[in-house]
Amino acid sequence: MRSLLAVLAFVLPTLALAAPAEKEWTFLIFLNGNNSLDSFGPLNINQAETIGSTDKVNIVVQWASLQNGDVRRLLVQKDNDPKKVTSPIVQNMGKVDMGDYHSIVDFVKWGVANYPAKHYFLDVWDHGSGWHSKRFAEGTINPMDISLDENTGNMITTKQLGQALKESAAIIGHKVDVYGSDACLMAMAEVAHEMADSVDVYVGSQEVEPGAGWPYGDFMKMWAAKPTATAAEVGQMLTQTYVASYKGGSNGSDSVTFSAFDMSQLGTLDTSVKMFGDAILKLSKTEKAKIVKAFSSAQSYTYGDYIDFGDALSLLEKAGVSTMDAGFYTTARAAEKAFVIANDQTGYAKATGLSIWGPSDKSTYGQYSALYADLQFQAATHWGDALKFLFQ
Fold first, then answer.
1. Which domain holds residue 32?
2. Number of structural domains, the chain?
3. What is the pTM of this model?
4. What is the pLDDT at residue 18?
5. Rounded distance, CA 381 to CA 273, Å?
6. pLDDT tens profile 136-151
7. In angstroms, rounded to a whole number, what is the distance separating the alpha carbons of residues 157 and 160?
8. For 306-353, what is the HEC assignment?
9. Residues 337 and 375 in one domain
10. Nearest-CA neighbor of 367 among 140, 165, 205, 183?
11. CA-based angle 172:176:181, to the nearest 5?
């Protein structure tokens, strides 16, 4: 008996330290309900619970809730209760600042250690406002780039989000396979560019998302049927199920947009945007007015300065700009098509999948120009320099 106990004492600690099994994918949902979206958190988790984690795909959530008063880490498991979150709480973290980008990095580090996989999808769930926060007339800023935590008043800026993905990729040991913002207005060149070297596929909405956000049940059902899907295929699945859910589907009827970007094609897009900017720098005052008019008339998304790249190109081609020949439009459209590998919409017929900053007045340009100068997109394309010339 004594020898058996000795053997068990030696073996059991070893078993406890055994590495968890590696799966095909781990879906990491950073769900920040420390704000006015709190009631939608349980809705989305319950949707995910209709499928739950499988032998191929982990679904792990870091769930902050004003109602719960804490932050919990869950391993999402299948259940039959559509009104109650029943997935086990793997860790109760108490109070966590979900408006601090380090919280994303900590979540990824924990997820990789405890739920290892060949591929990772990181989803930041919350309010979003594209690359800049809304500046009001009185000079105050609505702090909502992404992940506003009302308990602390902090948010994650566009630059910080890029840093979070850079550190996350280092933890994983390769690029984050898919990054997505279950948040408004995030399908922008400027936001995606901040994680140019850290993400393979980027997904998000050009427009405001309805409160229900992504249809996690529909999406996970499709994904579970093909757990070896590539990052591009996962992005295409989410695009398809998201828009379908608002075309009289599981989320009812609403006007929405959604896109998936192939980040390996970002350099090609940069080249076309730089060509666009170089052409603007050669324009006369009369010709510059055509650009401004096109920006003001282009499909925009909530903020007038968030314009659809493809729609702006179409308007400019019709207007006729002296420094832009047919070859330019062909090249620019091809670059956007290569970059936007999935795009769907309902209610936005002019949406082509990619938003870009396109202010149509000097005041709006002046409000955000200093912030824009610090973005990686500006460094790569000098688009801000072209915009400055427009309003001189």
1. 23-265
2. 2
3. 0.93
4. 64
5. 6
6. 444 554 556 899 999 9
7. 5
8. EEEHHHHHHHHHHHCCCCCCHHHHHHHHHHHHHHEEEEEEECCCCCCC
9. yes
10. 140
11. 130
